[in-house]
Amino acid sequence: MRRVVRQSKFRHVFGQAVKNDQCYDDIRVSRVTWDSSFCAVNPRFVAIIIEASGGGAFLVLPLHKTGRIDKSYPTVCGHTGPVLDIDWCPHNDQVIASGSEDCTVMVWQIPENGLTLSLTEPVVILEGHSKRVGIVAWHPTARNVLLSAGCDNAIIIWNVGTGEALLNLDDMHSDMIYNVSWNRNGSLICTASKDKKVRVIDPRKQEIVAEKEKAHEGARPMRAIFLADGNVFTTGFSRMSERQLALWNPKNMQEPIALHEMDTSNGVLLPFYDPDTSIIYLCGKGDSSIRYFEITDESPYVHYLNTFSSKEPQRGMGYMPKRGLDVNKCEIARFFKLHERKCEPIIMTVPRKSDLFQDDLYPDTAGPEAALEAEEWFEGKNADPILISLKHGYIPGKNRDLKVVKKNILDSKPTANKKCDLISVPKKTTDAASVQNEAKLDEILKEIKSIKDTICNQDERISKLEQQMAKIAA
After folding, report:
1. How many CB atoms lie within 10 A of CB 54?
2. What are phi and psi of 20, to 5 degrees?
C-alpha cells in the first residue's frame, strides 16, 4: 500500500531568526547552573536573567528596545542571591514574579514605559521557603494566585494581593522538584521530580490524584506539562541517556499513550505548548535547534513536524503568549533565544498566500482578563480562561487601549461589573488611526515626565554632593 502523507496545516511551519538589528545585544546572560528558561516574554516586555555581582538581577526591556543594551541600563535587582526563575503575570503585563537563591519570591510592578531607574523595591516579598526557590508559575485563570517551588521540596501557593501563603504542599515530594505546570483551568498541577516520578496533584484538596514512577528511567532532569485536553506531556532521558518524550493519560498512567526516543544529546528539553494549535516546541538547553510536534487524537498521537536549526547553542528561551503575535504575518509562535551575549527573536510562520485574517490558525485564545478572583479559587471554584479573538484587537498599537493591562491589580481589586468582553472595550467609533496616535502621544508624554523626574533627582544629588565637597574643602 502506498503511504498517504498525513494532512496538517502545520506541516510547513517555517522558522526564521530576525535580522541582527532586531536582536537585543550585549546582554550578559546568567551562568547560574539551573535548568529554567532564563527568559520571560509578554506583548510589552522581554525579561532576561543576567549576571549580577553581589546578588541577583534581571533585565526588563520594552520589546522595541532592540540593538545594543548599554551596561548602565537599569535592572530589577532586589534579590540578595542569583535569580533562578521569572514569570510574567498573565493578567497584567506590568507585573512579574521572580524566585531566587535567597529563598524568597518577589513580585515587581514595572512602569508602563519600562525602567528608567533600577528597581530595588518589590511590591511584595513572599517568604516561606527554607531553601532556594527555582520555580515560579502564575495561575492561568485566577487573579493574584502564584505558585512557587523550592529546593526544600515544597510547593507554596500564594495570594499575592495579601502576601499570604494559602497552601503549603510540603510532604508530597521526597526529592528535588524539576518543574511544575498548571492545567488549563488551574484546578490541578503536574510535577516532575528527581525521584523520577510524575505526579498530578489537586492543590486545594492537597492530594495526589495520579502518579507514575520512573516515567523516564534516566537520571537526568525531566519536564512535565499539562495539555489542553488534560493529558500530560513529559520529556526526559532513557536508561541509555537517550532523550525521550512521552504522552500520558492521568486517568491511567501505567503505560504512556506514546513514547518517542529522539537523540543522545545531554541538554534538558524545555517544552513550550500552544493549546490553540496543539503544537509542542522542544528547546534543548545547549542545543542549536527547536523541534516541533503536533499532538492529535490519532496514532501515533505525537507527530513530528520539523526542526528549526541555527549555528549558535541556546542558553535559554522565552516564549511569547499568543496575543503578542503578528496575526497579519501568519505568525504562530515567537521565541526569544538567549545566546551568551545576546537575545535573538525567532519567528515561526505558516506560509499563506492570502492577506486576510486566517481564522483557522487563530482560534479564540486566552486573553489578559482573569476569570476568577483569588478568594473564589481558594474556595473551590474553577473557570476556564476568558477567550478573546485576535481578529481585531491586536493590530500593533491597539493593545495599548485595552485598559485591563494598565490597572495595578496588586493595589486594587476591580469591581465585578468591569468584566466586560475585551473586544468591545473600544466602544467609541473613532477612527483607528487617531486612537493609535493618541496612544502614541500618551506614551511620549509619560516618557518625557519620567525623564524630567530623573533629571530632578540627579539635580538634587549633584547639589548634595557639591555641599559635601564644600564642607570638606572648608
Report:
1. 8
2. -55, -40
pLDDT single digits (tens) 394-428: 543 333 332 323 334 455 444 333 333 333 333 33
Contact (CB, 8 A) for 398 and 423: no
- pLDDT, tens digit (0-9, with 9 covering 90-100), for 420-452: 333 333 333 345 556 667 777 877 888 887 787
Does domain 14-388 fall into CATH 3.40.50.10860?
A: no
User: How confident is the model over 160-181, as a mean pLDDT?
Assistant: 94
Q: In whole angstroms, what is the distance from residue 469 CA to residue 474 CA?
A: 9
CA angle (345, 191, 76) in 5-degree steps: 45
Prediction pTM value: 0.82
Question: Domain map of the chain by residue range?
Answer: 14-388
User: Which of 72, 71, 61 has the alpha carbon at shortest distance from 28?
Assistant: 71
What is the bridge-based pairing of β-strands 279-284 and 269-274?
Answer: antiparallel
DSSP 8-state secondary structure symbol assigned to residue 424 = G
How far is the C-alpha of 370 from the C-alpha of 387, rounded, in Å? 10
Check if the beta carbon of residue 205 is closer than 8 Å to that of residue 168: no
Is residue 60 within 8 A of residue 47, CB to CB? The reply is yes
Cell 492529535 belongs to residue: 296
What pLDDT score does 433 carry? 58
Residues in CB range of 401: below 8 A, 6 or more apart: 425, 426, 435, 439
Beta strands in 160-196 (DSSP E): 164-169, 177-182, 189-193
CA distance 203 to 201: 6
Q: What pLDDT does 331 receive?
A: 93
Nearest in space to 78 (alpha carbons), one of 39, 44, 52? 52
Question: For the chain, give me the number of helices (H) and strands (E)?
Answer: 3, 32
